[in-house]
Amino acid sequence: MNNERAKTLKDNIFKGWAIFATSVGMIMLAVLLIKIGMDGLHRISLDFFTALPSRKFEKAGILTAWAGTLWIMVTTALFAIPIGVGAGLYLEEYAKKSRWSSMLEINISNLAGVPSIIYGLLGLEVFVRFLHLGESILSGSLTLALLIMPIVIVSTREAIKTVPNTLREASYALGASKWQTVWMQVLPASAGGIMTGIILALSRAIGETAPLIVVGALTYVPFVPKSVFSSFTVLPIQIYNWASRPEAGFAVNAAAAIIVLMSITFLMNGSAVYLRNRWQKNVRW
Amino acid sequence: MIAEMKKPEEQEVSLGKKEGEEKFSEISSEMPKLLNHKEEKSMNKVQAKNVHCWYGDFHVLRDINMEIKQNTVTALIGPSGCGKSTFLRTFNRMNDLIEGFKLEGEVLIDNKDIFAKDVRVNELRKKVGMVFQKPNPFPKTIFENVAYGLRVNGVTHKKFIEETVERSLRQAALWDEVKDKLNKNALSLSGGQQQRLCIARAIAVEPSVVLMDEPASALDPISSAKIEDLIWELKPKYTILIVTHNMQQAARVSDKTAFFYLGDLVEYDDTKTIFTNPKKEQTQNYITGRFG
Question: Is the ipTM here above 0.90?
Fold first, then answer.
């Protein structure tokens, strides 16, 4: 009897702790969102999106920052997706299982955990200096592509692993080649998982500041980038710049820009969740 | 009805055997019979000669010899792990996909060694269709499932594809059930329907040999019976090899039965003989359920 009571007590204590732990996270997030909303929401207007940065906080906008972010994201995706998905596909479908391939596997997973500033230093040395690409969008996006590549590779592999072998066998048994099987069966069947991974990887890249500062993104850019060789800034750097200004008006600007950046991230993560659910509903074996 | 269909063939087979021994005397005396004999010889659709298989060091099949005539159903039976599925999968070289697989000996289809260097495995698999144990339709529409084999083999003619899909689905006795929902996902079909779809998919590329690896084992008795009926209907057009754990099924659908045990082909004979009067004790024990 006593024992039973102790068990129930333990149960309740643990349940209480779990609720507390969850609410800490939720409450902190809510407080942050509310604070930022109160600070910055009134600053968001069409002008805010179309104005160039300015020394006067009431005139300053995020045009160059979001344009830079768009440029960076598109070029990063162009590099990271084909190479990342290709590498994942190779490792899962073509590479023979050997000690070498399992070592490669561990290293790729480890690369996903390397601090982003290290990638920045690598980008500075390889793309900016050695390949003479300069402090350009190209250098920045190549660096970010390297940064998110491991995530893309790992999630591609995970997605491909869920494709049952019976599907491949069915395809081969009809006279399909390896390429046809991969292209017409394996990739479509794992597309949902791969897309989810890509979106999550890109939503990590969109918030990165450190590696881009290292490869030479500018804090003050009074023009919209014209090509991949232009100098650039991105939203997080603009936020960092404004937040470090002493005037209170810039803090408001920073809050508004944070709302924009956060909305984009939420949107991306939301679509990743949507894709995953849709994929799970449509494909079952 | 089944018994009626079987009878004439059994007579043919037994006649052929007796004549084989007196071949030379016949050559001079009866020309028509010689021609007949020749025809029969070329009707050895599938042949295995001294086939050995290994997975790594594991010797899964030992010295298998088998001759299979055209438009017959051959059942491969035996306890799990006896190598019957491996043997089935040598005929469309599915085992090639497994690392460490090795084969010695000759496997002939239409008198051509399918492991010869000039054989393109994709072409072979078009000729030798396969139906798997678990229904494995592609997560695509019903139509695309059947059309896939044509598409990967380079057929683009829309009308031809449509006609072939319909004909294959009719042959697989599925057309009436799916004709109004060809654009629905194949995974929405029941297990039995999925398996018949897989059969339609296999025969859409017009193979001459169809391999079936326990095609009804994952299905309920009614769906299973439908598959058996289907096998009977397909027999006049295809040479069918079927692996099964179900003795009654083997007895019902097949003309010849091969009993495998631990990598050896213990006995291969007319199904009737195997099930009523087997020559080996092991076979007798297995089919009566004393082991296995």
Answer: no
